[in-house]
Prior knowledge:
- By secondary structure, the chain is α/β, with parallel strands linked by helices.
- The protein has 3 domains: 10-87 and 166-198 and 355-395, 2-Layer Sandwich (Nucleotidyltransferase, domain 5), CATH 3.30.420; 90-163, Dna Ligase, domain 1 (2-Layer Sandwich); 200-353, ATPase, nucleotide binding domain (Nucleotidyltransferase, domain 5, 2-Layer Sandwich).
- It is 35% helix and 29% strand.
- The protein has helices at 55-73, 107-117, 166-178, 189-197, 200-205, 237-248, 252-262, 291-315, 338-346, 371-383, 397-412; strands spanning 10-16, 20-28, 34-43, 47-48, 51-52, 79-84, 90-99, 126-138, 141-144, 154-165, 182-188, 207-212, 217-223, 226-233, 275-278, 287-290, 326-330, 350-352, 359-360.
- Strands 11-6-1-2-3-19 form a 6-stranded mixed sheet. Strands 14-13-12-17-18 form a 5-stranded mixed sheet, with helices on both faces.
- α4 crosses α10.
- It is globular and about 80 Å long.
- The model is unreliable at 1-6, 389-398 and 404-413 (pLDDT under 50).
Amino acid sequence: xxxxxxxxxxxxxxxxxxxxxxxxxxxxxxxxxxxxxxxxxxxxxxxxxxxxxxxxxxxxxxxxxxxxxxxxxxxxxxxxxxxxxxxxxxxxxxxxxxxxxxxxxxxxxxxxxxxxxxxxxxxxxxxxxxxxxxxxxxxxxxxxxxxxxxxxxxxxxxxxxxxxxxxxxxxxxxxxxxxxxxxxxxxxxxxxxxxxxxxxxxxxxxxxxxxxxxxxxxxxxxxxxxxxxxxxxxxxxxxxxxxxxxxxxxxxxxxxxxxxxxxxxxxxxxxxxxxxxxxxxxxxxxxxxxxxxxxxxxxxxxxxxxxxxxxxxxxxxxxxxxxxxxxxxxxxxxxxxxxxxxxxxxxxxxxxxxxxxxxxxxxxxxxxxxxxxxxxxxxxxxxxxxxxxxxxxxxxxxxxxxxxxxxxxxxxx
Length: 413
């Protein structure tokens, strides 16, 4: 490993994705912002649809990405904020109510009412990951963000609750620990991505974030500055690759290359005469295939994903909240024509979301696929300890992670 040094105010986001691991190192600057000082990328074969399937393979990928980020940044990484996703993620909205003690709302009252709202039934083997306040009500007055210090008798809260399988969170922390990294916190992927790509105005007016990764496509709806809905669809970039693999009878590696080099999901952007060179299985020489054929295969899968997401918004009656449009990030946002197709299928204007408001080596992460890692690093800088320091808190790591997640997200969302 290259020689590294310690530095204060350095923070790391670790996106543990299905197809690859991304580590982003940032440092606070003198202008109250953050600068990117390093990044690392490694292919990952230890995950499936956002869930750890092989600890050793995931550990190796984490170690490789972290070493690369250390070499670039010159910083020894000891702790990170890590992302979590997968089909095990569940979400719902809940309400709580308590009587205000003493007539003036205190932190204790706020804690009690949130605890009341979080007292919901969850499946065996699951734990609450995030309890995110949406709004408070005090004696009938709503849309209150911070009720502490106000006078009243009846305090109510509406919250968004995210739960997930304990085993998957434990496997993420275990893989990181085996790679020599401490997990300071675990954050739902789309919430981390939103920190990197959404503006405060979009959160307030109402936006739908779509974060498409290798194994899953994640959804989050924001309104009045808060999270109103999250969901995980178990379809992602790997499905596009497999469609090309099966449809064109080519190897998966060749299908992946085609997807990256010629990925378009809006047929109107392809000229009839355009073609791509493809290595076909069982043939000694490369063949030529129309790009329109490639596009039709990819567009069919993308149309399915956006249709399913639109159905989710329709069923949950969330369209009324989406006033500023749809923001698409993650690897899926690199498809040519993604804005056109998303707008057509989902009925709202769409834009591509890339990490914003960052300095330093920002060009290295100015890509939708880095949104989760950058968002995790930004959240780490807002709440966590420096990436060079190991927390002195004793006790079970998973318990510590879950407790800090609730405190953290309750404050910033």
